[in-house]
Amino acid sequence: MRIAVVGTGYVGLVAGTCFAESGNTVTCIDIDERKIARLKEGILPIYEPGLEELLKRNVADGRLHFTTQYADCIGDAQVVFIAVGTPPGEDGSADLQYVVAAAEEVARNMQAYTVIVDKSTVPVGTAEKVRAAVAANTECEFDVVSNPEFLKEGAAIDDFLKPDRVVIGSATKRAAETMDELYAPFVRTGNPIIHMDVPSAELTKYAANAMLATRISFMNEIANICMKVGANVDHVRKGIGSDSRIGSKFLFAGLGYGGSCFPKDVKAVVRTAEDSGYEFRILKAVEAVNETQKRLLFDMVTDHYEGDLSGKTFAVWGLSFKPNTDDMREAPAIVVIKHLLDAGAKVVAFDPEAMEECKEWHLADSITYANNPMEALDDADALILVTEWNEFRRPDFDDVKKRMNGTVIFDGRNIYSRKTLENLGFTYYGIGS
Ligand code: NAD
Predict the structure, then answer these.
(1) Domain-ending residue, one of 157, 173, 196
(2) How far is the CA of 86 from the centre of ligand 1 (A)?
(3) Annotated catalytic residue, options 18, 226, 261, 358
(4) Domain that holds residue 240
(5) Interval 218-273: pLDDT, tens
């Protein structure tokens, strides 16, 4: 098939590359000229394991193209995916201006029947808005399909090529069959393509993210009780995760959820509910718990130093909102570091992939960036582990101790053993024990 993907962010670039990998001819379009110019040179705008190799192979094989011009790729595309951003507006609802602008531009360039797919995470009713925007700008026949994306940054290629399920909301058989044909190569092992009406598909994505965010906030509250009653959240996690009704994934206590999806999607569901006259009480609490949790480590640090952080130096390991991505949108690291700086402390940080992103978009030169994890420790009063990249899991703690000025470790992801560290002479703080 000939496909166009509008938006070359985490979702659009991965989707476009994977559709090319399965034999389609794909053009990815973005209004960001710098991004497209760099992609044409083979330079990726994001870090995503496995993406670079796959992208380069498909470009070399002539199946994957990049452009800034809708006219280059919409006319002969059978399916057009809209994968642009849907950031939260001021009231928490998803800002649909990019989706609608993309839909209008697609419509102006269509030349025949086209399946237009909402890949972005969008509230119920968006497909109708897209339909209206397209209809106002074309005489061609078209269908609008909702096909939410469930990939996880850091494992996006695998998630896309081998999805747990594909959700398709469509109103016509013609569009549904086109989508089945397109996704057939990805579901050969039997994982389902689940067809449903459009509003249900739109809501499914939000419900999934809201449920996952709820698990995180729930476990963080369990962790907070554990600290008060002398229990250990890791034991509780194993104890409940072995129950098949609960399952073991997404039960880790930590510094709260971040990233470009959970925070905005939880907000959007709360807003959607409000718009329909319903108060989503659980999700409001999920959000409130998360906000407190992002501060927790900083509060532990402040308590340890009895409120005086001026002149102290902190090594921070991990900036991205989770491992294996350079994405720092809504990352807990930003909250922790800003509090430290406001309190007069100095921060020396290291992250395997997110330092450029951090410097360009988030913390600029307000902190020092180390060349490697060990360098960040030199003369630090304490180490704060924020993101659990694999390379932080087993440092040489004798070397850690030699380099640091102090002996305190704040472990925001519970990746170290309290017993081991205390035996080595460190003071250890974890979440929930
Ligand atoms: P992103 O911000 O990384 O990328 C969006 C891209 O769209 C940008 O490159 C931007 O320049 C481009 N764009 C904006 N307007 C455009 C237009 N009119 N024409 C062409 N390009 C345009 O976003 P993302 O993280 O890939 O997310 C995209 C959507 O997918 C969001 O709705 C998000 O909620 C959803 N989603 C994201 C993830 C994730 O892990 N990032 C997972 C599932 C779903």
Answers:
(1) 196
(2) 7
(3) 261
(4) 197-433
(5) 999 999 999 999 999 999 999 999 999 999 999 999 999 999 999 999 999 999 99
